[in-house]
Amino acid sequence: MADSTEFTPDKDAVGAIIEAALAQGRTSLTAPEGKAVTDAYGIPTPGEALAESADDAVAVAARLGFPVAMKIVSPEILHKTDAGGVQIGVGSAAEVRSAFTTIVSNARAYDPKARILGVQVQQMVPAGTEILIGTVTDPTFGKVVAFGLGGVLVEVLKDVTFRLAPATKDDALSMLDGIRAAEILRGVRGGAAVDRDALADLVVRVSQLAADFPGIAEVDLNPVFASASGVMAADVRILLTDEAPVARRRYSREEILVSMRRLMEPRSVAVIGASNEDGKIGNSVMRNLIDGGFAGEIYPVNPKADDILGRKAYKSVMDVPGEPDVAIFAIPAKFVAGALGEVGRKNIPNAVLIPSGFAETGEDELQQEIVTIAEDHGIRLLGPNIYGYYSTWQDLCATFCTPYDVKGGVALTSQSGGIGMAILGFARTTRTGVSAIVGLGNKSDLDEDDLLTWFGEDDNTDCIAMHLEDLKDGRAFVEAARATVPKKPVVVLKAGRTAAGAKAAGSHTGALAGDDAVYEDILRQSGVIRAPGLSDMLEYARGLPVLPTPKGDNVVIITGAGGSGVLLSDAIVDNGLSLMEIPPDLDEAFRAFIPPFGAAGNPVDITGGEPPSTYEATIRLGLEDPRIHSLVLGYWHTIVTPPMVFAELTARVVAEFRERGIEKPVVASLAGDVEVEAACQYLYERGVVAYPYTTEKPVEVLGAKYRWARAAGLL
Amino acid sequence: MADSTEFTPDKDAVGAIIEAALAQGRTSLTAPEGKAVTDAYGIPTPGEALAESADDAVAVAARLGFPVAMKIVSPEILHKTDAGGVQIGVGSAAEVRSAFTTIVSNARAYDPKARILGVQVQQMVPAGTEILIGTVTDPTFGKVVAFGLGGVLVEVLKDVTFRLAPATKDDALSMLDGIRAAEILRGVRGGAAVDRDALADLVVRVSQLAADFPGIAEVDLNPVFASASGVMAADVRILLTDEAPVARRRYSREEILVSMRRLMEPRSVAVIGASNEDGKIGNSVMRNLIDGGFAGEIYPVNPKADDILGRKAYKSVMDVPGEPDVAIFAIPAKFVAGALGEVGRKNIPNAVLIPSGFAETGEDELQQEIVTIAEDHGIRLLGPNIYGYYSTWQDLCATFCTPYDVKGGVALTSQSGGIGMAILGFARTTRTGVSAIVGLGNKSDLDEDDLLTWFGEDDNTDCIAMHLEDLKDGRAFVEAARATVPKKPVVVLKAGRTAAGAKAAGSHTGALAGDDAVYEDILRQSGVIRAPGLSDMLEYARGLPVLPTPKGDNVVIITGAGGSGVLLSDAIVDNGLSLMEIPPDLDEAFRAFIPPFGAAGNPVDITGGEPPSTYEATIRLGLEDPRIHSLVLGYWHTIVTPPMVFAELTARVVAEFRERGIEKPVVASLAGDVEVEAACQYLYERGVVAYPYTTEKPVEVLGAKYRWARAAGLL
Questions:
Q1: What region, left, alpha or beta, does residue B383 occupy, with left being phi > 0 and alpha being psi -120 to 50 degrees?
Q2: Which of A38, A284, B532, B576 stands the most exposed, by the fewest C-beta atoms within 10 Å?
Q3: Which residues of chain A form CATH 3.40.50.261?
Q4: Is residue B668 scored above 90 in pLDDT?
Q5: Which one of A131, A405, A567, A572 makes the best mutation probe of the B interface by having the most chain B beta carbons within 10 Å?
Q6: What are the C-alpha distances in Å from A442 to residues A259, A413, B604, B659?
């Protein structure tokens, strides 16, 4: 059934109608124009025709089928009902004939001067579930299609879902399941299910219509009536716009990868504004580059110094030998444009603009000036208004913050410098293995989609986590995310989720914060894992690369603390995971290891006083049995099995199975005195995502891994 | 309007009907009985009467007003519609006459043996919003009244809310606002608002009915039609039960306080099963009592030893001098009953039962035996199956865990031992000031309501946090919570929230886990702050006693990191707090301190490169201005203002204002390298709730404080 919608709309007809309406300076289509447009896209609306005589009306009604609605058509009569010019549920030929006469004479009586063009005879819409289908033009994502249940469910409960337009049939079907009241469409209280295929088909057609014509600002089909026998849009409203979407410079995937490789794996870098003076950014950057151990060439540029930190300094970047891959700017904003021209003439492909004082402080023109210079010279810009960036596997620390050297699989980016510092501190305290940390700041050029494209290809990166407040080009981001997600998880913290947050985003970056409902659905559609908060983003970033990908849905809890088992079960459900129904043979196998008063089933409650051997035997069984796909461990600190004993046995067993090729996600919640903290760190470094004093976090990270595995099509 | 519902139901009539039905072995009332019951409680239902003849029917219909519904009445015909025994919308005398004949003959044809008592003629219900009002008998809370919008909103979206029965008029009005679709009742899409007073009045009456009669198991008014002109229950269903509610032994508030004071502030304790042998529980308990520094007498009881850890040992508790306040049991389950009898004869009022091997391992009879012994002797039991308890201000560590000595204001309790260990570890690592930690285990006697009653009075306790999986007596808990909440916050982590969690709770404690929807609403009604997870409970417990109570709703964010400002704004909204609209004069006052490109408004974005003086000036202004009630700080780690400099200035300013009598909650999110961790600890210890690497947690704790302040009636 999926993607079965194929149709050949009459685009020329629609194009002509829109063009004509715009030419008349109109911002909406009339009802007959709307009807013509929907007909051209095969969008079912009530059949109708203009009848100029009673005979005509009877013939039309017979063709459409009874009952029909009849309405006066006169340019002078706007309020048809007031004029006695509307009759509905007209059920037979005789009634149609009589209604025609009545309507016309009512109209004449109402306004003797009105020109009467005839009576519109319209098919009555069959009863059904009320649906809203529409499209809007989102500032971030462009044309977007919306679907919800009409009436109070949309209006009061805001139960509506969005996808990029055009939507595929699969997208459309996912929308039918994407609303909270989805069950209604499947039939409740004895009602029949609606025709899902016809409904999804309608979504596809409407979304295609909006996508085909930049001149269409909004489409509203409200209500659509859906029943077991089909769908019909009872009312159509189409709004127009003559604003052309702003064209944004796009680079090809190849172009992006070439310049990003030189940015992230440079052989040499120039530091413009390098300084010997403590406390200067140009000094911190130089120190960090040197102390970080960068193996390539570092060229300090400073017109007033002969050497910087013992390295020969150059008066101008033009004097630097060769062609560095990156120019790092540590000079005040007002000098950036001049130096950037030199960087361009030197053919340096990347400029990292640490200085602030551009769009974020209202200096939009200054920012536009440097963007123009960069485009003229083919320079890609990172920033301005950033802390710089780390490329850990290159020992490259091109920032004014402190160096970071724990190499690993997660690449992190942040739009805000403050969040970048939080990333750094968190990574350091948890010893999270990092491939890169990149500040994006004002995103005058390079943004999340460029970075995603690179990190998707980068072999050192297993997981990408991004803090962002807006997207300059939502479509480019979705494209890059879709190309990346099948290979590695992408975590997104979208700040400005709420109305208050979005307001703050506006004042901070001058960027229009998108409507969060649209972001929510479209980020999900693109396969990224959205983190609800900063702390979640950081924990997902730390944990996802550590966990192997689950091969199925069956999660089993093994716990020494019954109390933890209950809370872990809560967390399993909260995170959309499945507590495995344990089959009898497996239940018996677990029971063999646990005291008679322990509870098998799931959670497997081994009880609190058990020795290490009970933990080990049950964990082994959990890893061994191929029907189990993930383990959640609940540890209870006792004298019999101290924290590090538990950590060592668990890490050892997991490693042993991994060597045998059996890799399952294992996460753990450790309840105990402070020694559990070291035990958790020990476990984390050995591939078991473990947390003290919380039953929620380990399961949240496991849940994020599952969400990614599903989005990547691996489950 | 509140609590204006006063009515005098005819209880005798209802009692007689229920008694008669139960005497006949029935578990439900017939429609006429239901009608009589609702009439007795003034619950509006359609007028109706039994007609034995067609003439009768016409007369009744004329009295009620046309149209009417007509239904066969026969004890043998349960499915009236199947029997052709129902007609609705009968609109005239002639139609009533004909309907009577048809219905009766249909019924005779359907079942020739059926006794036909006549035809019920019923007023048709006026149109309105469909509502569900009902009552159930909850295993935890007893009679509970439910309210929701009928139809799909209840059935598909489970949009329903609960309160204890009987509900007050205020309770009932809060239910109208307590559903997600509350807006519908206020009128949407041009519809009129329903008569809220009549609707709330109906809730009160139904809840009173259920509360008055233990024999009523369930009441279902579904649907009730509510409109601007009133309410009417179209269908009434009343289910009966002859199961008497299990009586639970209750102690008076005075009795509880007397024995709890001796438990928590004992002058002397006896340790039954005290031991010199390392690794034995009776050894750990003795060591902890001694090492913890308990100043009262400690009497080891051990028939085989002369002294234990250098203290004279007694063969039996009977030999101990005086009358200890507490007997701590560290002997196997099978010996408990015998020793407990001696404890009773010795007049010791409290027994702390550490041993496991009772109900939690299926030994229900053994547990019942000790409960009976305790009741016979007037001993209160803590446990069995617990780690013991800490009474920090008494330096009392009556557990087999490690001692804890950071005295402070939070009392923590846990049903599970594992969670108790997590509490201990968390408290130690965060240096949380604790007044008590108490294990509740099987709760054979003492439970949360006893502890709440005590901690509510205890001057050392400012905040109470409880982990629980069930409540033995929900009503007693609500009563204790309501008495305590106006004085101090009560945080509850209710485990087994989800269906999967509840299932695990069942297997763990043998307790029936209540329906979480009921728990959710009734815990809120009782004013407790529900923590969504273990980590939240611990953070609330740590943070709430530290924060002063806010005096108003206006929250202001002051941030050095614009990015944090956006995330903090998100968190403000997520936690139901209000970002203050900054008046122009205050805006100007803030602007005087921040760079021209900084953003005033709210968040106040002082920008990233600012010196300590900018943080200090803006924080001072925030504390000084009486229109601001709470501050949320976003710190960004820079060389100009290092973490400890920020922490010291913030703590100093807050302390200075506190000395001047100006106390406002101040929370902080610190974004930076690892030094921010020490800065957070420094701030926390000085009354500022501060967290590194998260923008969510500080605002969550502030949100919990606001929830409490509202529940306590302080806002």
A1: left
A2: B576
A3: 404-544, 554-711
A4: yes
A5: A567
A6: 19, 13, 20, 43
Distance CA B19, CA B26 (A): 10
Indicate yes or no: CB of A637 within 8 angstroms of CB of B560: no
Residues of B in contact with A570 (CB under 8 A): 495-498, 500-501, 533
Q: Which of the four pLDDT bands, split at 50, 70 and 90, describes residue B499?
A: low
Chain B residues lying within 8 Å of A190, measured CB to CB? none
Which residue, among B200, B35, B569, has the nearest Cα to A507 in the 3D structure?
A: B569
Which class would CATH give A404-544? alpha beta
Q: What is the pTM of this model?
A: 0.92
Percent of chain B surpassing pLDDT 90: 80
Average pLDDT over residues A586-605: 88
- How far apart CA B463 and CA B456 sit, in angstroms, is 9
Handedness of CA A422, A428, A429, A435 (dihedral sign): positive
Q: Is the pLDDT of residue A511 over 60?
A: no
pLDDT of B631 > 50? The answer is yes
What is the per-residue pLDDT across A24-80, written as a single tens digit (0 to 9) for each? 999 989 888 999 999 999 999 998 889 999 999 999 999 988 889 999 998 888 788
Q: What is the pLDDT of residue A500?
A: 52
Considering only CB atoms, which chain A residues are within 8 Å of B597? 360-362
Alpha-helix residue ranges (DSSP H) falling in A53-195: 54-64, 93-110, 152-155, 169-177, 182-185
Residue B193 φ then ψ, to 5°: -70, 150
Report residue B413: phi and psi, to 5°: -130, 150
Residue B483 has a pLDDT of 96
**Mean pLDDT to the nearest integer, B78-104:** 91
Contact B151 A189 (CB under 8 A): yes
In what helix (H) or strand (E) does residue A196 lie, and over which residues does it extend?
helix A196-212
Closest-CA distance, A361 to chain B, in angstroms, reads 5
Which of chain B's residues have a Cβ under 8 Å away from the Cβ of A559? 418
CATH, domain A554-711, list 3.40.50.261, 3.30.505.50, 2.170.130.30, 3.30.9.10:
3.40.50.261
Look at residue B312 and give its three-state secondary structure: strand
The predicted structure's pLDDT at residue A32: 85
Tell me what ipTM this predicted complex has. 0.91
Spatial CB neighbours of A303, under 8 Å, sequence gap ≥ 6:
A315, A316
Distance in Å, alpha carbon of A401 to nearest chain B alpha carbon: 8
- Phi, psi for residue A224 in degrees, rounded to 5: -100, 135
Query: Cα separation of A309 and A283, whole Å?
Result: 8
State the nearest Cα–Cα gap between B618 and chain A, in angstroms: 18
Q: Is the domain defined by A4-11+25-123 classed in CATH 3.30.1490.20?
A: yes
- Chains A, B: CB pairs < 8 Å: 294
When pLDDT is cut at 50, 70 and 90, the band that residue A459 belongs to is very high
Average pLDDT taken over every residue of chain B: 92
CA B300 to centroid of chain Cα atoms: 40
A129-240 carries CATH number 3.40.50.10090? no
What is the 3-state secondary structure of A650-682? HHHHHHHHHHCCCCCCEEEEEECCCHHHHHHHH
Average pLDDT over residues A660-678: 97
- B495–A425 C-beta distance less than 8 A: no
DSSP 8-state code for residue A323: -
B248-385: CATH homologous superfamily? Answer: NAD(P)-binding Rossmann-like Domain (3.40.50.720)
* Residue A626 burial (CB count, 10 A): 11
C-beta separation of A694 from B533 below 8 A: yes
Q: Is residue A1 very low, low, confident or very high in pLDDT (cuts 50, 70, 90)?
A: very low
